[in-house]
Amino acid sequence: MVQRVSGLVSGMDIDSIVAKMVQAQRAPIDKMAQQKQILQWQRESFRDLNTKILDFRNSKLSNYRLASTYAASKVSVGGDSSAISAKANGTVTGTNMTISVGALATAATNSSTGSIDLTGGAFDAQGKLTQDYTFKINGKEVTAKLGDSLDTVMATISKNTDVSAFYDSQTQKVSFIAKNTGLLTSEGQYEVDGITLKRFKQIQFEDPSNFLSTVFKVATMPEGNAATAAADAQVTINGLTTSRSSNTFTVNGVEITLLKPSSGSPSTLTMSQDADKLVETVKSFVNDYNDILKTLTGTLNETRYRDYQPLTDDQKKDMTESQIEQWEKKAKSGLLHNDSILSGAVQNMRNSIISTVNTGSIGPYQTLSSIGITTGTYLENGKLYLDEAKLRKAIEADPDAVKNLFTPKAESADGKKKLGVAEQMYQNLNTVQKSIMTKIGYSSMEDSSSQDQSIIGKQIYSLTKQIKDGEDHLNDLQDRYYSQFTAMETAMNNYNSQSAYLTNAFSGK
After folding, report:
1. What is the pLDDT of residues 214-242, one digit of tens each?
2. Residue 54: how many CB atoms within 10 A of its CB?
3. Number of folded domains that form the chain
4. pLDDT tens across 11-50, in order?
5. In terms of residue numbers, what domain contains 111?
6. Which residue, 146, 285, 303, 486, shows the most beta carbons closer than 10 Å to its own?
7. pTM confidence score
8. Domain match, 10 and 59 both
9. Residue 42 maps to a domain
10. Could you say which DSSP state residue 247 is in?
11. 250 and 168 in one domain?
C-alpha cells in the first residue's frame, strides 16, 4: 500500500480530494452492485413463490387427483339400530348388509380371591415395598422395586403389560382385565405398536416371588369365580355366521361396532353416496385454486417502480431506518412482473379448468362448467365460482363423472389419455417447478464451493467478479492518486527547504 500524506506542506485536504476523485469513478460499480441486489431479491421472491406452489401441488392437488378423495359414502343403520353402529371408511365396496349379533367379544379377567387386608382392616395403596419382587403377566416381566407403593406397582402393570390393574375399594380386591378382547387367533398372536404379542384365552401369571399370591391374593392358576376367559364375538353377516376377536371390525370399507346382542330382528346397513362430503371436497378445490391463482396473478401484476433502485451504503447513511424500509419496499416491488414462467403456469392452470375430460360417462358431465364451476370476469384473472345447486344435481345424476372430472387417466376413443383437471395441474406444476429451479438453483448451491449453474446464479457470479475487478481498479487508482500527491508534497517540501536555504545564504546569516 502506498504511504499516504496528510497535506501538511500544501495545506490541502488530500484524503477528501482523493475520495472525491475515486467516487467519480465508482458509479459503474455501484450500478453493478444494484443489479446484483435485484437478482438476489428476485431469487428470494421466486423461492417464496415456489414454496407456495409446492404446498399447493403436494399438499392439495396430490389429494384432489386421487379417486379416494371423492369416494365419499355414508352408511345408515336400520332395523335393530341399538345393536350396532357403523361408519364408512373411505371407499365403500359391496352392497347393503344385514347383521345379527349373537354375542359380544369379551376380555379375559382375574381378581383377588379375597379382600386384601394389609394394615389391620385397610388396603394401604401408598404402603411401601420392603424388598424387590419380579413376576410375569402374559409373558411380560414386571419388577416391583423396593420403596414402590402398591399404587405404583398397579400403574406399572397397566403401562408395561397387555393387562390393566386397579383396586376396588368396595370389594377390597385388585382386578385385572386384558386390554384385548377375543380368543386365540389362528396364529395365536397379535400386534401392538409393531410388537408381536401372544393372545391368551385367560390371563397368565408367573409368580416365583409370590408377590401376586401373597400381596394381591391372586391365584396364579385361574380357579373358582375369580377368573373369566376371553370370548370371541358371534355375528351373522348376510346369513353367514362368523366370529370376531374384537367388537369393532371392517367389512367392505364399513367400520362396524357391535354394541349388544340383537333383540330378534337383524340390523340393516344401507350404503349411499355422501353428497355433502363430495360437495365440500369440490368447494375446497375451488377455494385452494383461487388462493394460489390470486398469489400468482398478484405477483405477475405487481407494480414495478424502476426509479427506486437498491440503495448504496453511502445513500443509506443519510436516511432513517423507516425511510430505508419504505424505499426498499418499492425497490422490491414488481421484480417478477409479467415473468414468463409464472405467466405460463397461470395459463396452464386456466387451460386445465376449461379442458374437456373423458369421464367415461355418456352424460353431459365432461367439463367443470357442466357441474357448476365457472370463471369470473376478465378483471378477476380467472377466479372460479361454484354453483352448488348445479353441482348437487350432477352428483345425484352421475357421481362417478363428477369424481372423474378431477382424477381419471382413462383413454379416449382416439387412444389418448384425457387426464382429469387436478391431475393435469399436478403434472403441469411439476414442470413449472423444474423451470424455477433452472432459473434460481437450490439454496445449498450458495454455500458450496462449486459455482451455481442456475440462470440467476451465473448472472450473480459474473457481477460479483466484475464488482471485485472494479474495486481492485479503484484501489489501484486511489494508490496512484496518493502517489501523485505524495510526490507533490515531497517536491513542495524540497522547494521550501531550498528557498529557506537561499534566503539565509543571501541575507548573510
Report:
1. 888 888 665 545 788 888 999 999 999 99
2. 14
3. 3
4. 566 777 767 776 777 788 888 999 999 999 999 999 999 9
5. 107-231
6. 285
7. 0.64
8. yes
9. yes
10. S
11. no
